[in-house]
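Section 5.1 Outputs to date
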Amino acid sequence: VPTLLLADRAAEEGRVRDAVLAGALCGALALVRSIGVAAPASAILVLLARRRFLSAAALAGATALLLAPWQLWVAAHSAPMPSALQASYGTYGSFLAPILRDDGLAFAADVVGRNLTALPRIFGAMFAPAPTPWLRTPALLGCLALVVLGAARVARRAPTTAVFLGVYFAIVLLWPYAPDRFLWGIWTLVLATLGAGAWVAIEGARELPALVRRRGPAAWPAIAGRSLLAAAALLVGAGFVRYETRGISRRWWESAQRQAAEQAVPLLRWAARADSAAVLATDYEPLIYLYAGQRTVPASAWIVTEYLRPTPPLARRAAIDALLERYHPAFLLATGPGSSAGQTARLLLGDSPPALVVVQELPEGGAVFAPTRQ
């Protein structure tokens, strides 16, 4: 938020110093999360629209100065990485370029369609007063109306923020991953936009008595529209209060971490006692590397096209074989049959003879396997 506010000040007042500071913050934002590139892109667009060409160049230069070292480091170290790991640890271009080259616009259109169907589920769950279709649909329509109203107000007062939201959502729609995780990063701005729309709706409702006195029957269409918007604000507000109340009472902010920890702890305890020279394949490779000090690799490959359709067994097996042949893990650690590592284990156990053997069933959950050939 401070980054966008500073960029708006640079666009409003035209000071190059503000543009340089905003560019530095934009670069830091993009280093934290790559989708943060929406911030400098939006700021530059607004500056160019206002003919602040020197400020636009200063902001772009400051952003590039912060991003350049990391990009150079990635370019120097990404080449040896096997294709099976590119989607998880490589550059975005390295795994998206082949897909776009083969499927092009059809892939992008399918991703947009998939993500557009996911957004109503997210907003319906958060803003409907009850999980029933007859309330969910009006709540979704109300959200849409309030977002339009709020975006119009934000665009007048903070144009860079408004453009940023548009660019950010465009990236989310085009990205082949569930949009939920990206929305949380800007959830404060989403709520602020909805809140601005709700405020506009309430202001309109407060003017209804004066509108009736001035215009009489001719005001009925305006009265109906403003009343509907006010009702939408109340409906969406009630849904949001319900969702937040349930979340606070059930401690939802820690539920995902707690579940992940409960699944990972048995594997972590086993890994802490393993040979330090062994390479472990697991779904929790960063956690086990950090807390057990073991060398780890993923137990499966993230295949981008799986977001739209299941991967053929031969293609999945080829990706797993590439990991095994490159890193020669001594053990595979799985939390359960439904996990990615569990699916890898099931696939390898189906070979004749099996490519894995069971080393240990962990009493707290999970299992350890060892490849039969290195």
